Each structure stands twice: as C-alpha cells, then as structure tokens.
Amino acid sequence: MKRVALSLVLAASVTASSAMAADMATKAPPPAPAPAPSPWDVAITAALMTDYNFRGVTQSAHHPSAQAGFEARYNFNKDWQGYAGISGESIDFPNQAAAEIDFYGGIRPTFDKLALDFGVWYYWYPGGNCLGNAPGTANVAICTAPAGPSVPNKNGQPLGGNFVKSNVSFIEFYAKATYTFNDQWAAGVQYWYSPSVLNSGAPGNYVTGNITFTEPSSWWGSTGIGGYVSGDVGWWGLGTSDSFYGTGIPGNPFFAGVKYTSYWNWDAGLGFTYKAFTLDLRYYDTNLTKAQCNVFTSASNASFSPGNITAQNPNGLGSNWCSAAYIAKLSFATNLSGLK
C-alpha cells in the first residue's frame, strides 16, 4: 500500500513539473522596447481667407485669397529643431503677378517656456509685368525698355502715374521669441530685415509684438472646441527706393528715389479651433494715408483726388489698400506624425 501511495505522489509530482514546464514554454517573450520616434516630421497647412493682409496692407486687392504649404522638420533633440518650407498664396498685384511663393528655413531653439526662431524668408512673385504710364517722367523709358512690356491695368483704367517693376521678389531675415507664461497666456516679439523691400531698393526693418490669451478647455466642456483672443502691433521702418520709383520731376526732392513712409500697423481678433481647423476673425489697420499708401503699393485701382497731391505723391492718386479691413480666415494645419 505504501508503494502505491509513493507511486501516486511521484506521478503527481512529474505531472505538476510537466505542467509547469509547459506553462513556462508557452509564456510570451517580454515586449520589445518601442522604437524611438523619428526625428523627421512634415507640417501641412491650407487656408481660405476673405482678404490676404500683410502688415496691414492687402496683397489681394481686398479680394479673397487661398493658401497652401508644407514644412519639413528635423528634431536634433527635444530643444532644437531645424526646418524648411514652401507656401503659396493667391494675390492681386499691380504688376499682374497672381501668386506669391514663399521659400523659408531656419532653426527653432527652445529653453523651457522661451521658444526662439531664426531664419530667412524669400518672397517670389512670378509672372509680373513692368508697368509704366507716367507721361512727362523719366521712368516711362524704364518700363518700355528691355525690362518688360508695358501692359494696361487689368481693370481697364490708366494708372495715371503709377509704375511698377516686373520683378518685386525680395528676401528677409528674421528672429522671433515667444514666451509662454502658462496654459492661457503667451507673448512674443519679432524682428524682420530686408535690404530691398519688394525689390524697390529701399531697406526695411520690421518690429512687431503680440499677445495671445487661450481660453481654458473647461469653457467649452467636452465639445472639442477651443478659442483664443490675440492682438499684434508692428512698425515698419522703410528707407528710400532706387531711381525706378523716383518721381523723375526736376526739382522734386524725390526725383531719384522716393522715401517711403514708415508706418504702424495693428490687428486684433479672436479664433475658434476644432481639431485641425481654425476660424480666425480679425480687424487690421495702419496709420498710412491714402497718398502714402499709393506711393508704397502703386495700387492698380488707385483714384485721383487733389488732396492726395504731395511732393512724395505728385500724381495725386490714393489707395485704400492700407485701410481698415475685417478678415475671416479658415485654416487647416496638421503634422504627418499626427496622422499615423
């Protein structure tokens, strides 16, 4: 009887050992560590807007405009990012250029709550034509020379003294800083420099500051909607153009080049966000007069008024391209890494 009991105990032991061995053999191996995230990413943007405004000046003659672009990014580490991008906007320029193509690149260092950005931006306006219709001035010959053919205003109205180069493309260098105080408040400053704004020969120094209040998510509950309020104030210090934009009038102080008026611009508005979409509603304005605006823009829809005649603007044309504007913009922005 003892032998039988011993046999049963040994059999049970062997069976238990076999079961444990089987259990050990079927256990899954420990999961492999997750692969490190790729340092590369691409941002994609698109927008529709009722007007394309740049530093208080319309770039689309107060008409609707569309934008699309992408930006390649490389994260050297969590605090340093390099980037290069391209963006396109529809415009309505006096020289009949219909598109703005932007090429840009730089680096973005981050130090805790302070984010910096240093880079270069090139504005390319293909398809422009040299325009000149200034009887009695020295600049008519410039526009009818090999620089390009003289063509009429697309609206069928004579420019009456405005003249524009076929090539108004230019470059700017910039530095930006943004400080995020908390989840609601952030403020920033920017500096932009161009040796020749709009290829006019006039240097430009642009300084701007902004502040943004982001509404707490609790304001919107579980809707997924977000909101913000923001404002900007900027000052563009502009120099003197080359002889192309001079009045050509003997004795005029701007005979060989016009001194553009440096000016203030500002905007204020609010926005609503939902996932990758943003609806921004904003007011823009400047302190430029219609005469000063005409000198700077050579607007194709400028109109004459005796009150616009100045030494800087002897043709008496005035433009509303630098006047107050209310603009709605619907934009889309996402990263490829967020689509995976």
Brief synopsis:
With 340 residues, the protein is mostly beta strands. The protein contains four helices and 18 strands.
Walk me through what this model shows.
By secondary structure, this protein is mainly β. The protein has a single domain (36-339), classed as monomeric porin ompg (Porin). It is built from 4 helices and 18 strands. The strands form 4 sheets. It has a 12-stranded antiparallel barrel with strand order 1-4-5-6-7-10-11-12-13-14-15-18. Strands 2-3 form a two-stranded antiparallel ribbon. A hairpin with a 2-residue loop joins strand 14 and strand 15. The longest helix has 25 residues, at 2-26. The relative contact order is 0.14. Mean pLDDT is 86; it is low at 1-25, 134-138 and 145-159.
CATH topology: Porin
**What's the alpha carbon Rg, rounded to whole Å?**
31 Å
Please state the structural category: mainly beta
Output the number of helix runs: 4
Number of domains: 1
* Basic shape: elongated
Instruction: Calculate the terminal CA-CA distance, rounded to whole Å.
Output: 69 Å
Helix content: 10-25%
Supply the CATH superfamily name: monomeric porin ompg
Task: Sketch the topology as an H/E string, one letter per element.
Answer: HEEEEEEEEHEEEEEEEHEEEH
Biggest sheet layout: 12 strands, antiparallel, barrel
CATH architectural arrangement: Beta Barrel
- In the predicted model, the low-confidence regions spanning at least 5 consecutive residues are 1-25, 134-138, 145-159
